[in-house]
Amino acid sequence: WVERARRHQREPDRPVRRRGARPTIMFQMRRIKSLLAKQRKNGMAASWIAFLLISLVVYAAFSDGDFSFLLTYASLLRCFGMLLLVAKLRRSSSAAGVSAKSLHVYVVVFATRLCSILRHEGYLPYDRSGDWLYHCIEGASLVATCACCFMVHFTYNQTYEESTDTFGALPPLPSNLGALLIIVPCGLAAAVLHPSLNRDWFSDVVWTYSMYAECFAVLPQLFLFQKQASSSATVEPLIGHFVAALGFSRIVEMAFWMSSFTELSDRYGNRHVGFLVLATQVIHLIIMGDFFYFYLYSLKRGLPMQLPSYNSLV
Description:
This protein is an all-alpha fold. It is built from 12 helices and 2 strands; from the N terminus they run αααααααααβαααβ.
């Protein structure tokens, strides 16, 4: 008894654990571990972890720490999204769940933006990433988008769900030309309302067009999601990542233009064009509001993304 008393004096006091109480830290650690295991199983987090690591390397190697690197980062997000779609098409050998009309608009978006930034420097990032990296990323995005179009229309054409990709099917416009419902109005708007940082009409117009068209380019894909929701509400993980990356890129870009949109004035010095460009970013976020909610909810739970079946646009 004396020896036990001595050992008890040497040992530190142990916290008294009440019956039924949970150790908070260990419980949370097990919960996080379980969540990560679910995400690995469903492929919901691995792609984003890889992207974040790559983006840190790009920032360290090619950026001067200037705020304008946000433009390059937004471009990197878009490229990441398109590469995810390429991976989806190659891995599944199927074009199911992919909107060709969204891809058509994005081809025009990347092509017109390159027409501007390859000729002039008015809309480029100010840091080193604007010397050549930004151009390369936009070029890679264009190539990846064209590759997706080729696989949807030729390689895996038998699996393309044309019956659900019906955005813009308004008489007399044929269903397969639904992308023109975005391409034409945005082109007309850009020709009338555009900034003049490049001091070149064509270069300024095509850059502005890329901004306007990108705002609505995701609409056909969201419309397809809604058409599919009546039969299958589950979105394939890589397609969900693809759409989310395009949406997040606009959030990053909006963060930059919120502090710089006053520089986007027309040739008369009016700044209403800058407000319009900023408004396109906000409109894009409103369009994707429901999608972001369900996407982030699925990430939190580590489950495949589920879309509601109610009758709305998204």
